[in-house]
């Protein structure tokens, strides 16, 4: 049975078989009112967001010059610092979570152009793409139908894309398989290429240099190990591939703004989800916004695109009262 299209909540969709390894998942949001800001941890993945009625407001981050702004649609590239974002009212949004190599094939550009930033989808997908796609999603009568629309649109782009370099695939696979504990010299031996060429390929296909990717992969490995692993931070540092606990603490603070103890406490209250070994975007674990940032906030003066697509034909209404009539 299909999920009610107007029932508030988050709805998860699986991509078609032809998009597995390209699209991690689809996520639909039906919001009856404002949502508190959430903290998104850094990752190497890419997220394409399409919303209508209420834009996403990015409060802080990404690192490279993006001021707080409202985004009815956006592509968020690989990030190296936490991002605080939220919705200020009722509306809908669809997120398309892409693997790095999937984003390289679907977006048809070197991913270092997206690193540490957010851009409007039309800059990559072509003029009018976001409005046209949003209009089709708005008209759909169920979430599964929305996933089918996205499957068809993305499959067409994939067929016109460029296959990734086998050496880039090999280097990225080794980084993930080893939990980030692999040196540039080891990557050159595995691929048979020089160090400079390996660095160029990873920046082009994944968006970030190998040292940064190792740091992010190791960070997420530590979170995954901690979800079922030791209580001792010293033991966790060793199992996750850090030199010692202080090394782990420095990386945790740089990537999340939290100490290992603080972040793991929050993670254990709301466990993370990892999908098929892919580093997930929006891996937020329910982190609250910093105390200086209230959960409900007014939309600041925008520095990015703010014109939203046409409003939907239906509203995302709150659930009916249990004490009311039919």
Automatic annotation (TrEMBL):
<dbReference type="InterPro" id="IPR018060">
    <property type="entry name" value="HTH_AraC"/>
</dbReference>
<dbReference type="GO" id="GO:0003700">
    <property type="term" value="F:DNA-binding transcription factor activity"/>
</dbReference>
<dbReference type="InterPro" id="IPR050204">
    <property type="entry name" value="AraC_XylS_family_regulators"/>
</dbReference>
<keyword id="KW-0238">DNA-binding</keyword>
<dbReference type="InterPro" id="IPR009057">
    <property type="entry name" value="Homeodomain-like_sf"/>
</dbReference>
<feature type="region of interest" description="Disordered">
    <location>
        <begin position="271"/>
        <end position="326"/>
    </location>
</feature>
<feature type="domain" description="HTH araC/xylS-type">
    <location>
        <begin position="175"/>
        <end position="266"/>
    </location>
</feature>
<keyword id="KW-0804">Transcription</keyword>
<dbReference type="GO" id="GO:0043565">
    <property type="term" value="F:sequence-specific DNA binding"/>
</dbReference>
<protein>
    <recommendedName>
        <fullName>HTH araC/xylS-type domain-containing protein</fullName>
    </recommendedName>
</protein>
<dbReference type="Pfam" id="PF12833">
    <property type="entry name" value="HTH_18"/>
</dbReference>
<feature type="compositionally biased region" description="Pro residues">
    <location>
        <begin position="308"/>
        <end position="326"/>
    </location>
</feature>
<keyword id="KW-0805">Transcription regulation</keyword>
<feature type="compositionally biased region" description="Low complexity">
    <location>
        <begin position="294"/>
        <end position="305"/>
    </location>
</feature>
